[in-house]
Structures are given as structure tokens and as C-alpha cells.
Structure to design on (178 residues):
């Protein structure tokens, strides 16, 4: 029995739509919300090669006020270097995360709660390269959740951050071996 090309194309399209529908049904709304509100879901874009020992990037943060979003963006810049790494782009190679263990945040939760507190050490490892309040595409008003999405240009002192985490016993030293 010979199948016409139109019927074959129709069956292929129906199969593709059924796969899409099934894959979306497998992920509930709460699963998707948990994924997007994850503490490891950072929006980071490398902007170029920084001076020795630093990483220059554009990073976004969310907050009810612009100031809160800027603080969150600073934390996200440092956290992305520690936990997730930085993707390649704009002439810069990808940078792996300082902590390779995916459970390091949970293992050292007390340390990182203090590290990322309002007066925590994280602020010592970031230099802002943005002057003043973000505007235009770098400052967006959000309806859900209510507040702002703000982008800042930041320089993270990668080598100094790594040395601090090594001194505090959180990261393994590079010369420690495998």
C-alpha cells in the first residue's frame, strides 16, 4: 500500500503537535514557576574581556524598587561566578564556576547566607561600571511580578573572590590536585 506524500506530511505534523502538547503537559505550572524562580536562574551576559583577574558582564536583577533590583543584580553577578560560571561571548571565553559541586550552595548554606546578606562579603568583589540609575532597555517596569527588571554593567574580581573562598575553606585550591 502506497501512502501519499500529503497524508505522510499530515501525519508527521500531527505527531509533532502531539509531542509538543505532551511535553508541555508533563511540566505543571508550579514546576515551571519553580524553575524560573530558582536561585540559580541568573541572566548574565559577558560584555568583554576585563583586566587581569576580573570578569566584565551585564547582569539583570528583579525588585519591587529599582534600588532593590540593582542590589539583586550585584548579588546575581557574584553568585553566577561562584555557582554557575559565565557563558562565552564578545571575545571572551567561557568561565567555569568557582564551585564545581552542584550542591555547594546547600552544603555551605550558612556561609552563603552571611556572604550574601545586606552587609555581606559579596559586595567587596564587585565593581559597578554603570554610572547612575539604569534607563531605557536596562530598566523595565514589570507587571508580573510587580516591580522592575534592571540591568547593570559590573566587573567581578574573579581571582580575589576565588582566593577568599579558598581561604574560607569553601572552594578547593587549584593546586590541591584532583
Amino acid at each position: 500500500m502506497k501512502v501519499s506524500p500529503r497524508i505522510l506530511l499530515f501525519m508527521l505534523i500531527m505527531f509533532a503537535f502531539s509531542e509538543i502538547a505532551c511535553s508541555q503537559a508533563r511540566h505543571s505550572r508550579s514546576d515551571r514557576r519553580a524553575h524560573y524562580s530558582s536561585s540559580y536562574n541568573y541572566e548574565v551576559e559577558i560584555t568583554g574581556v576585563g583586566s587581569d583577574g576580573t570578569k566584565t558582564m551585564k547582569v539583570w536583577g528583579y525588585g519591587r524598587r529599582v534600588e532593590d533590583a540593582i542590589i539583586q543584580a550585584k548579588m546575581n553577578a557574584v553568585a553566577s561566578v561562584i555557582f554557575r560560571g559565565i557563558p562565552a561571548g564578545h571575545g571572551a571565553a567561557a568561565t567555569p564556576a568557582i564551585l564545581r559541586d552542584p550542591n555547594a550552595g546547600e552544603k555551605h548554606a550558612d556561609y552563603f547566607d552571611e556572604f550574601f546578606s545586606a552587609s555581606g562579603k559579596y559586595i567587596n568583589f564587585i565593581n559597578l561600571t554603570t554610572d547612575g540609575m539604569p534607563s531605557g532597555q536596562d530598566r523595565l517596569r514589570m507587571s508580573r511580578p510587580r516591580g522592575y527588571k534592571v540591568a547593570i554593567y559590573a566587573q567581578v574580581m574573579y581571582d580575589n573572590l576565588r582566593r577568599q573562598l579558598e581561604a574560607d575553606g569553601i572552594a578547593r585550591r587549584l593546586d590541591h590536585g584532583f
